[in-house]
Design a protein that fits this description.
Largest sheet: 6 strands, antiparallel
Strand order of the largest sheet: 1-11-3-6-7-8
């Protein structure tokens, strides 16, 4: 008697388990950090747009954790850093190898926090996030 095996695959689709409330766009610069606060119940992952110029890249700091971008920031092309996925875009193109340190941190609920940058100006976008 021989063994018989059945192989099969099931495609699963997972929906986003979070609910979102009010959305925010908070500005900051190298001299003035962006003041962040959200009223949700779970951490919110920001998307940061960086504009300006910096030949040597820049550092974003949130909750004591840093994201060091080594890709040069040139005038006329903004960088978008998605803290949830870790993807950096220059304009609409994905930047590969543009990080030297990637300690992405979410915005914690119910606590005032600041995000700072070492170059240019930033706009931090995020939403109140609930589960």
């Amino acid at each position: 008697m021989t063994d018989r095996y059945l192989r099969f695959q099931i495609a699963l689709e997972a929906i986003d388990p979070f609910k979102y409330g009010e959305s925010y766009a908070v500005a900051g610069s190298s001299s003035t950090p962006a003041s962040l606060f959200h009223r949700g119940t779970v951490p919110a992952w920001p998307v940061v747009t960086v504009t300006g110029t910096s030949a040597g890249g820049y550092t974003l700091t949130l909750n004591g954790k840093t994201v060091v971008v080594t890709q040069a920031l040139v005038s006329g092309t903004s960088h978008t850093v998605d803290f949830k996925t870790g993807i950096i875009r220059a304009g609409s193109s994905v930047v590969r190898g543009g990080l030297s340190t990637a300690n992405f941190s979410p915005i914690n609920p119910g606590l005032p926090q600041n995000m700072s940058t070492t170059a240019g100006s930033i706009t931090v976008r995020y939403s109140d996030t609930y589960i």
